[in-house]
Amino acid sequence: MSSKHTPGPWWIEKDGSDENNNEVNVINGSDGTMIVYGQANDADARLIAAAPELLDALQYLAADFRSVVNSEFATHRNHDPAKYDPAYSKAMAAIAKAIG
What we know:
single chain, 19% strand
């Protein structure tokens, strides 16, 4: 699946401290592009760095999920695919937010 973001994986580098002694993180893309430079706690930096892989995994999961739900509906006529819509809708909303 394709996106316009800098391709992953992204990684974190520590870049010392700023003038207020706050740790500065640099998040770089696989092509060497600097994605983020600034103050970010370690948990936020890890989440940002994981974004490309999380998006990719969610896109594949959503596609497979919809395929399985449709297959189950075709196999079992009393199966209600609408009960899965909240999870699928939430995944699709997150994907749309990420890719614009």
